[in-house]
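== Folding task for one protein ==

=== Format: two labelled lines per protein ===

==== Paired sequence and structure tokens ====
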Amino acid sequence: MKTVATRGGYAEQYFPNSETLMPDEMRIVALGTGRPFLRRSQANASWLVELGNGDKFVFDFGFGSQMNFTALEIPYSSINAWFATHLHTDHVGDFAQVWVGSWAGGRLQPLEVYGPSGPEKKYGFRHFCEMQMESYAWDTDTRVGALPAIGAKLNIHEFDYAKNQTIYEENGVVIKSFPAVHQFDGPVSFRLEWNGLSFVYSGDTTPSQIFIDNAKNADVVVHETFNTIEQLMDRSGYDERTARAIGTYIHSAPEEAAVVLREVNPRLAVIYHFFNDFDTAPEMQQKVREHYVGPLVMATDFMVFNVTKDKIITRMTEFSDHVWPNKSKHEGFGKAERKPMLKMSDWLKKAQLFPKENSENGLVYKGKVG
């Protein structure tokens, strides 16, 4: 009989849809851990949190992260809500995939999205979403006749970026927002609490007392840090001024993030937002260890954390590149309401080799092939 390697009672690797979460368990999956420069090995920022009560949440959805999300073969209808920390594209760049991709992938309820306001309307999350939706008018208006119309609906929940507040509270889950110090007014960080467990996600931030005060004693704290100044100069080709501006003024240097983690004292500290390579990781770890000696993980995409009150297990996901949409929640897809299809110009219709026309049941052939 073949045996399966285990780690703390879990399989050595996480296979999507192969494990049922215990009622008191939290699972965190890194969907994107890289920098604004997108590369194959690390998508832009995104984190999935799944709870033992069945709820699922995604924090940030930067470019490339949705390919990693779909690799987990989770029905889009299973996601309760999506949360954005701020409006840099490496944190919200996959908006169209979240909205339209989830619709084409079988979502049968409005998309619930949460994000911060800004010091002016044009810098707020609602403005961002509405302008994105307007720019995709041709895309979505041409889909509502073939796909369930409900999938085009978006419920935008904009909240005050400047307040420490609860922005979501349902089914025993509490998600709080608090201001992040990141370049300009608007960015926030999040803290999720459920069943005595807690997850804190920094988004982008330089070290701040606000973060320390709101993240203290959390079970898992995911804190951003960019590559070292030397790595940014050597590997990205930045001059020293640019490297310091990006690595310390806009983001947290690893030795700076370490001071925050030391004060927060989480059960597990996770750092992300840097290029995690064999030749950069040792220096990153060394810098963090200058000030923080607690449990530490340097994240990369598809890393999985199973969290209970007794233990935290870290593994990697084993996934397929050739997934199809998970259809377990598609029962109402065929019966859901559609809107009338847009009609193309007569001269375009006449160019069709196999003419079709609209009917109540969709498109039908007027003629035969061959």
Observations:
- The chain has one domain: 19-317.
